[in-house]
Specification:
This protein is mainly beta. It is built from 2 helices and 14 strands; from the N terminus they run E-E-E-E-H-E-E-H-E-E-E-E-E-E-E-E. It has a 5-stranded mixed sheet with strand order 1-3-11-8-13, with no helix packed on it. The protein has a 5-stranded antiparallel sheet with strand order 4-12-7-14-5. It has a 4-stranded mixed sheet with strand order 2-9-10-6, with no helix packed on it. The model has no long low-confidence stretch (mean pLDDT about 95).
C-alpha cells in the first residue's frame, strides 16, 4: 500500500548542481586527443552547463547493469599511492578480486597498475604521465577497440568467452569535498547519434607511442548526468566502458567538472583509476 501519512516527512530530493562539461562538435577531419600534450589535439570542444545530480541521494542506487555505474565500498591496503612499486605490488590484485566479487565473472584481467590524476590546482597535474583530469566527455574505447582488446586477452584452454565487459575503477585520494569530481552519463540516456569516433593518442616527450579508437560525445538534452559528492578513500566508483551483452548497459560517457558548491580553497582533487576486463565462459 502507498504511504499516505500526511505527517511523514518526505525524503530529501537528490542534490543537483549545474556543472560545465566539455562536449564535442564534429569537425571536417577526424578528431584526436593526447594523454599529455594537449596542444597537439584536434578537437572541437564546446563547454555546456548541464544539471548533474548527486547520485548518493538516489532512492535506488545506480547499478552496473542499469545505468552502467555504481558506488562500491572498497578499502585498499596501499598506504602510499605515490609509491609506484607498492601500488603495482598490491593494487591490481585488489581490483581483480573486487571485480570478481562485484560481477560474478569467471575471470578478470587487469590492465596496468593505476593512473594517478590531479586537478589543475595541483602542481602534479600534467607533471606526471597522463595526470590531467579529462575535461571533455568521452568513452575510453569504441566497440572496435574493445573487440580488439578482448581478442588479445588470454582464454582458458577449452573454454569459450560468452561475455566480456570492461570496467574503470575510480578512487578519490584527496579528502572530501572534491573540487573536480567525475560526471557520469546514465547509459540508458544515450543515443547513437551522440557519439563521435576519435583517436586516443598516448604520447611521451612529443612522441606518439600508441593509439586506439575511442569516442567523444555531442551534447543532447536527453542525456542524464550524475556524480558522487564527498568521496572517501574507502569507496570507489565502478563504471562500464564496454559490454558485449546487449541486454545490459553498454558504456558510460564520463568527464571532469568543477563542483560549484566546493570552496575554492579546498585541496585539489587527486585520484587513481584502474581498468579491468571481466570474462564469463560458456
Amino acid at each position: 500500500m502507498p504511504d499516505t501519512d500526511p505527517h511523514r516527512t518526505p525524503p530529501p530530493a537528490p542534490r543537483e548542481v549545474i556543472g560545465t562539461l566539455g562536449f564535442s562538435e564534429p569537425l571536417a577531419e577526424r578528431m584526436r586527443y593526447h594523454a599529455n600534450d594537449s596542444s597537439r589535439d584536434v578537437m572541437n570542444v564546446v563547454p555546456r552547463a548541464v544539471p548533474i545530480r548527486d547520485a548518493r541521494g538516489d532512492a535506488e542506487p545506480p547499478s552496473l547493469d542499469r545505468e552502467g555505474f555504481a558506488l562500491v565500498p572498497h578499502r585498499s591496503a596501499v598506504t602510499d599511492w605515490r609509491d609506484a612499486a607498492e601500488v603495482a605490488r598490491i593494487h591490481p590484485e585488489e581490483i581483480r578480486r573486487l571485480l570478481l566479487d562485484l560481477t560474478g565473472a569467471d575471470e578478470v584481467e587487469i590492465k596496468g597498475t593505476g593512473i594517478l590524476r590531479f586537478g589543475e590546482k595541483s602542481r602534479d597535474s600534467g607533471a606526471l604521465n597522463n595526470s590531467k583530469p579529462a575535461r571533455f566527455v568521452h568513452i575510453d574505447v569504441s566497440d572496435t577497440t574493445a573487440q580488439a582488446f578482448n581478442a588479445r586477452s588470454p582464454v582458458v584452454e577449452g573454454r569459450r568467452i560468452r561475455r566480456a565487459a570492461q570496467f574503470n575503477v575510480w578512487r578519490a585520494l584527496s579528502p572530501p569535498p572534491q573540487d573536480v569530481p567525475l560526471a557520469l552519463c546514465d547509459a540508458r540516456s544515450l543515443q547513437s547519434d551522440d557519439l563521435i569516433f576519435a583517436d586516443a593518442v598516448f604520447d611521451k616527450d612529443g612522441v606518439a607511442l600508441f593509439q586506439f579508437e575511442g569516442l567523444v560525445l555531442r551534447h543532447n538534452p536527453a542525456q542524464r548526468w550524475a556524480y558522487f559528492a564527498d568521496l572517501h578513500d574507502d569507496e570507489v566508483i565502478v563504471f562500464k566502458t564496454h559490454d558485449t551483452d546487449p541486454l545490459r548497459a553498454h558504456h558510460v560517457p564520463h568527464g571532469a567538472f568543477d563542483d560549484p558548491g566546493v570552496d575554492p580553497d579546498a585541496p585539489p582533487r587527486a585520484s587513481i583509476e584502474m581498468r579491468g576486463t571481466c570474462f564469463w565462459y560458456g
